[in-house]
Amino acid sequence: MLNDEAISEFLKSFFEKKNSWEKLRAEARTQAITWRWATESMSFEMPFARELYGGSNPRWIADDRANPKSHVRHGLDAQDRIVIECGPGIQETVWLYEVGRRTGVQWYVHNDDVRIGSVTQYCYQDGRLAANHLHMGYRGSDTRMEYEDGRLLRSFSRHWQEEDEPWYSQYVFSYNAQDQLERIVLQYTDVQGQPTGQERLTYLRLPKGESLATVEARVKSLLLQAIETALVNIPQDEKLYCLLLCYTHEDLGAAWPPFLVWGRESYQQSVVERDEDVPYYLWAPDEIRDVQGEDHEYWFDDQELREACLLHIQLMDMKQSNTSAMRVLKQLAPEVLRMAKKAGLPMTDDFVVTFVDNTGEVDPLKAMKSSLAAEQWALLKQRGYV
Predict the structure, then answer these.
(1) Tens-digit pLDDT profile for the chain (386 aa)?
(2) Are 302 and 196 part of one and the same domain?
């Protein structure tokens, strides 16, 4: 098998040979003798992809059920190999086959404008995936699989970017007595693959009898317990105008369990005095954190809670919906308000507990209005806070 540097140079050559792009695309269409639609790419290959990345498994669908805006059309050759994929949108990928490896060249095609996006190569040994290489022009990765007794033990990756030092990571796969995948741990490593100490559990096998409903209920219960403990640690040297349950809409797993940010009255007053985008700055966690610092936020690290939240994320990923998490947050807000009052936190007369997207992509005011009493919303609006 070629070394990573040699493969990287080979993949890079596709970016430089623009005059060959049209020929590759035309040849692929000539080779395709049948066309089929699928929900997603049927060429992407990674052991335990669903466990690692979530979502549902791709599947073939009938032509009359295909949606060109979201589905992928596949051209297959006489050997029933996928030689070209079109979509979704303006994406197009051509697959080239050689002994022991296949290479995919992806373009973005809009009318006469053709831009290369990435080149991927899968390498095989003893009938199974041995390596995966990705080149995106200025950055990429090289991943190698390690098996034992037919089971994948780890996938070790080198991540590189032009003008930066490469960094390394690995997924470690563990199995139960029945040879079923039990958990996946992401570890950051040195160049030799030795863990540096930073690691994160990324997958847990769903215990027998569990469902989205049971896991959701457990997450809510554990969060209430954890928040009750956290409230004791909030400084009481100044009144608070808000307690925010912060999540990340685009990548829910990055902040689930949600973390807490509390807004101090002095920050509220400074925003009002500045009189610039007041409704934004009052309820934007990143803006509050930037001014107040990390002493006024709280991240949960309880193992039982984090593992329950991981199962919750996995189940939501399978449904491709975060409705369950939003339901938990909506139910938490009024209960946390009662807990905050019981804990004796010093509060302004317009104190609010609500949930907000930490990235700012989702307007927090809609959720706030639906959860607050009409009188409190009117007060906030009168003061120009919403």
Answers:
(1) 557 778 888 898 999 888 899 999 999 999 999 999 999 999 999 999 989 887 788 999 999 999 999 999 999 999 999 999 999 889 999 999 999 999 999 999 988 889 999 999 999 999 999 999 999 999 999 999 999 999 999 999 999 999 899 999 999 999 999 999 999 999 999 999 999 999 999 999 999 999 999 999 999 999 999 999 999 989 999 999 999 999 999 888 889 999 999 999 999 999 999 999 999 999 999 999 999 998 999 999 999 999 999 999 999 988 889 999 999 999 999 999 999 999 999 999 999 999 999 988 889 898 888 888 899 999 999 999 99
(2) no
Domain's final residue, options 149, 178, 204 = 204
Instruction: Say if residue 197 is in the same domain as residue 239.
Output: no
Shared domain for 227 and 251, answered yes or no, is yes
231 in the same domain as 154 = no
Residues 89 and 72 in one domain: yes
Count: domains in the chain: 2
Identify whether residues 93 and 112 lie together within a single domain: yes
In which domain, by residue range, is 44 found? 4-204
Handedness of CA 195, 160, 250, 294 (dihedral sign): positive
